[in-house]
């Protein structure tokens, strides 16, 4: 039984020059606990696919059609209220740049507790304790709760973003180039950490990257996109040995 099942998804952009198709007829399913990688060159439609799944992309003129079934419910037919719950409780997203996701003038601790307080019936005391626990889950010390984003290294900031993504225990985490902005050593650390977290909590990951070799390590299956189309989808070993 799939956690997420995408059927014949197309996404068009309406621009002054007409309609351009960014995602063309993509079908893909993700099982519980599975990591599916989506690879492909810049501009091939990977981010558009990710945005369409979480409906975050409210860019004027974005038109998705097809089906995105999450546990059988079509994300494309959800009401704003349902989407809001879906966006945090079921699915969360980690982007390439932590600076785009973190608020520069709010401490890490407050950003974590804000997410918990906004979406859970939980006391401030429990939210604070949970925030510290989440930081330790991503390998950071609780002292860091008082830090502002600029006081952390890039790798730590990305860990915080992952901690925030985990806060509501989603079943699916979408990661769009989550380690691309980091140096290779830090990238490796974060990927190992992610691997452990996945083993421990059993969530599914949709992992988007232009880096096929990196994906061969983390993904169970890999899809390759080209010009909006999913041109290949298979077991990561098969795709990897078939360039
Ligand atoms: P990737 O993530 O693989 O780099 P994107 O999904 O960002 O690719 O882009 C896919 C295509 O959609 C590209 O041709 C891009 O120019 C186009 N595109 C992306 N965002 C918009 C937008 N807001 N309006 C019009 N076209 C867009
Ligand atoms: P236990 O406390 O029974 O050892 P776990 O090791 O499973 O529990 O979880 C430790 C913490 O991680 C708990 O606060 C739990 O709420 C949290 N947690 C559980 N599942 C997830 C998840 N999918 N993502 C993030 N945190 C989670």
From TrEMBL:
Protein name: ABC oligopeptide/dipeptide transporter ATP-binding protein
Species of provenance: Psychromonas ingrahamii (strain DSM 17664 / CCUG 51855 / 37)
Keywords: ATP-binding, Nucleotide-binding, Transport
A Gene Ontology BP annotation from the UniProt entry: transmembrane transport
GO molecular function: ATP binding; ATP hydrolysis activity
Domain ABC transporter: 4-243
Coiled-coil segments on the chain, per record: none
């Amino acid at each position: 039984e799939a956690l997420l099942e995408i059927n014949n998804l197309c996404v068009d952009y309406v621009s002054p020059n007409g309609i351009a198709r960014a995602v063309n007829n993509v079908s893909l399913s993700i099982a519980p606990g599975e990591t599916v990688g989506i690879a492909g060159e810049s501009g091939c439609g990977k981010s558009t696919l990710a945005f369409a799944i979480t409906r975050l992309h409210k860019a004027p003129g974005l038109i998705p059609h097809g089906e995105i079934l999450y546990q059988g419910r079509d994300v494309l037919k959800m009401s704003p209220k349902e989407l809001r719950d879906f966006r945090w409780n079921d699915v969360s997203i980690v982007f390439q740049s932590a600076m785009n996701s973190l608020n520069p003038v709010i401490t890490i601790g407050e950003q974590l507790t804000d997410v918990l307080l906004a979406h859970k019936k939980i006391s401030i005391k429990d939210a604070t304790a949970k925030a510290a626990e989440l930081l330790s889950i991503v390998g950071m010390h609780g002292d860091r709760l008082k830090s502002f984003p600029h006081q952390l290294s890039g790798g730590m900031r990305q860990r915080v973003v992952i901690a925030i993504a985990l806060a509501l225990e989603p079943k699916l985490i979408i990661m769009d180039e989550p380690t691309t902005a980091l140096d290779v050593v830090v990238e490796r650390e974060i990927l190992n950490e992610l691997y452990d977290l996945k083993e421990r909590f059993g969530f599914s990951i949709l992992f988007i990257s232009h880096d096929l070799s990196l994906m061969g390590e983390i993904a169970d299956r890999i899809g390759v996109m080209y010009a909006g189309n999913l041109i290949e989808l298979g077991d990561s070993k098969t795709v990897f040995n078939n360039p």
